[in-house]
Amino acid sequence: MRGQRDRSSSRDESSVSFLVPIKSFVDAKERLAKVLDPDQRRSFAKELASGVLEATKIANTAVVCDDDEVASWAAQRGASVIWAPGKGLNGAVSEGVGVLAALGYERITVVHADLPFPERLRSLPDVQGVLLVPDRRHDGTNVLEIPASSDFAFSYGRASFARHLDEATRLGLTTEVLDDDELSIDVDLPEDLVEMSERARQRGPEGPRVNT
Predict the structure, then answer these.
(1) Hey, which residues does 109 pair with through a beta bridge?
(2) Nearest to residue 143, comparing CAs of 29, 32, 31, 16?
(3) CA distance 163 to 113
(4) I need a labelling partner for 41 at 20 to 30 A (CA). Which of 48, 112, 148, 180 fits?
(5) In angstroms, rounded to a whole number, what is the distance separating the alpha carbons of residues 169 and 176?
(6) Is 147 in a helix, a strand, or coil?
(7) Which sign, positive or negative, has the C-alpha torsion 194, 197, 199, 202?
(8) Per-residue b/e over 168-189, b at no fewer than 16 CB within 10 Å?
(9) CATH code of the region 16-203
(10) How far apart are CA 87 and CA 168, in angstroms?
(11) Is the pLDDT assigned to residue 203 strictly greater than 80?
């Protein structure tokens, strides 16, 4: 791990860490290629990830990645870096959780880096088992908090929300599902950009911007 983020006092920060998996910015958001050119996609991915890291300043934050640019970028923003080359998303998250558990963190909150409205990460409910925040389609898993010692098997990708519910049941862990109208918004597809833009107009000037 590289670097360290200062903690605030809004949660039990001594035992909780955020874990943010981030792929190469150059390769990010390929499904937006019809509406954003490569430079726009790279800038947009950084913009979204920056907002997520800003929101997770309340506790230790680690970025798990296998890209030098991402690692340098994350360290400059005060995040720890867990290097996990060639493992894919699920393997990288498992690696990150293992590293953080070995450091003594009792609960890990895995957060995707493409949430345009991440502010409510600062006020997630305290739970004993698993906390799940699905995307707005109830298909993906935007936020997943687990006990670090649970040996949770991650299964990101299409329909991950249902699989993660099943995994919590398999492990006998209590589960809380938080349907949050802001944390449920992630940006993978052109229609997600439309939803983000509409929500940003409703929120006012603090919403993220990208030139389409």
Answers:
(1) 18, 145
(2) 16
(3) 20
(4) 180
(5) 11
(6) strand
(7) negative
(8) beebebeebebebebbbbbbee
(9) 3.90.550.10
(10) 23
(11) no
pTM to 2 decimal places: 0.88
- CB count, 10 Å around CB of 197? 16
54 C-beta neighbours (distance < 10 Å), count: 15
CB 106 within 8 A of CB 126: no
Average pLDDT over residues 62-91: 97
Residue 8, pLDDT above cutoff 60: no
Question: Structural domain boundaries of the chain?
Answer: 16-203
Return the structure tokens found at 18.
């955020």
Check if the beta carbon of residue 178 is closer than 8 Å to that of residue 2: no
Across 12-16, 32-36, 172-176, the highest mean pLDDT is recorded for 172-176
Task: For 75, list phi and psi in degrees, rounded to 5.
Answer: -60, -35
List all residues 6 or more positions away from 39 whose beta carbon is below 8 Å from its beta carbon: none
What residues have CB less than 8 Å from 77, skipping those under 6 apart?
A: 50, 53
The whole-angstrom separation of Cα 188 and Cα 32 is: 7
Residue 129 in tokens: 């088992």
Torsion sign across C-alpha atoms 23, 148, 116, 165 = positive
Whole-number CA gyration radius for the chain: 16
CA angle 98, 18, 81 (to 5 degrees): 65
